[in-house]
Write a structure and sequence with these properties.
Layout: H1 4-15, H2 25-37, E1 41-45, E2 52-57, E3 66-72, E4 85-87, E5 90-92, H3 101-119, E6 126-132, H4 140-144, E7 155-160, E8 166-171, E9 173-182, H5 198-207, E10 212-215, E11 218-227, E12 237-246, H6 249-269, E13 273-282, E14 285-286, H7 292-303, E15 309-312, H8 318-324, E16 329-333, E17 345-347, H9 348-363
Helix pairs in contact: 1-3, 3-9, 5-6, 7-9
């Protein structure tokens, strides 16, 4: 149903725009004229120059209600400019940076679906298009949204790296943990006994933690550690950062407590001290098959010629925040593979398929 050549052109133009988290203005400048040209009302949400872009398309006669469709404008750091390469029916970067299909495929599919719906005069409910900022740095843009920005009764996020036709209906809660371990500096060769090594103290705490896959619902990780200035100085300060995730709030609470306790006990064992910070990043969600937003999505997938597959994910997305704000939301598979790596790619077939699915979402029910 979509215009494949037009969607491919849009996607290729988008991936070559550098717009890392917090620097999305170039993408906003790209999408806003498209939305205006198609007759949508466009505004920016946020105080800085890189706020969310929100656009609305009123229902056609005989249709009522509103749905929201969202994708994020930022990417993880690029390193080098993206040079799209075609190979074996797929689109890659040239190999020295990411492709940025996460989430430029989401933006391209929404723009192409709008083009198709308006061009073919297809009946549709009210449509809110939301392009968010800084998703990769903690779902920041979605968190900025308020009830005044949203009038939809359900939302569809186009940002899962699963295959087209897959619908994410469950995702975990996520907690960030950080510690500043304080020891005591001393000369490592002359008087090491006068020092307290913060690296060793932090290591005691980390070694006592339960890290990795805890069970089928729960994971944890320590991913950042920084400290020290020279090999001949007993390190007096270390920064450690980790995370915990779970579909079960009680398990998450228990895991976070155990990680905090382990660090405090390990640090105390080495006669150091620690400052702990615990921050909830986002809340998990779980939607039933009978939920209206799930029913809408599965119907759209079927009308696109695919079999819908309901899945859970261990990662977070803007769907977590929409659900947390009381707006039921699912995350739709785009087909992007190996995201956040130099081997990222998307097949042309999947690119066009997700475009057709978004048309079905926009015109569904």
């Amino acid at each position: 149903m979509i215009d494949n050549a037009r969607m491919l052109r849009t996607f290729l133009e988008l991936v070559q725009i550098k717009a890392e988290s917090g620097r999305e203005e170039a993408v906003a400048r790209y999408v806003s004229p498209h939305l205006h040209r198609l007759g949508l009302s466009v505004k920016k949400n946020g105080e800085d120059s890189t706020g969310n872009v929100i656009a609305t398309l009123s229902p056609t006669p005989g249709r009522s209600g509103w749905i929201a469709i969202a994708a994020h404008m930022d990417t993880v750091p690029l390193g080098n400019p993206v040079k799209p390469v075609f190979r074996d029916g797929a689109i890659y970067s040239s190999g020295d940076t990411i492709l940025g299909a996460d989430d430029r495929v989401g933006i391209a599919s929404i723009l192409e679906a709008l083009e198709t719906v308006i061009e073919k005069r297809l009946p549709h409910p009210g449509i809110e298009v939301i392009f968010t900022v800084s998703e990769e740095e903690g779902l920041v843009g979605a968190k900025r949204l308020t009830s005044e920005d949203l009038q939809a009764s359900m939302a569809f996020i186009v940002d899962s790296s699963s295959d087209p036709g897959h619908i994410v209906v469950q995702a975990p809660s996520h907690v960030n943990l950080s510690w500043i371990v304080a020891g005591k500096a001393a000369h490592a060769g002359i008087a090491p006994e006068k020092g307290v090594n913060a690296i060793v103290a932090a290591a005691e705490g980390i070694a006592a933690m339960n890290i990795g896959r805890i069970d089928h619902e729960t994971t944890s990780n320590v991913g950042i550690i920084r400290g020290g200035t020279a090999t001949n100085i007993v390190c007096d300060s270390v920064y450690v950062e980790g995370e915990a995730r779970s579909f079960c709030e009680k398990k998450l609470e228990d895991l976070v407590k155990s990680m905090v306790d382990a660090m405090e006990a390990g640090v105390a064992k080495r006669e150091a001290s620690v400052q702990t910070k615990v921050q909830k990043s986002y809340t998990g969600f779980s939607l039933k098959e009978t939920s209206p937003v799930v029913q809408w999505a599965t119907s759209a997938v079927r009308r696109s010629g695919l079999l819908p597959v309901l899945i859970s994910t261990g990662g977070g997305s803007d769907a977590n925040i929409f659900n947390e704000k009381g707006l039921p939301a699912v995350n739709l598979g785009t087909g992007a593979q190996n995201v956040h790596t130099t081997k990222e790619y998307i097949s042309e077939r999947d690119l066009y398929t997700i475009g057709d699915i978004i048309v079905a979402i926009m015109t569904g029910a």
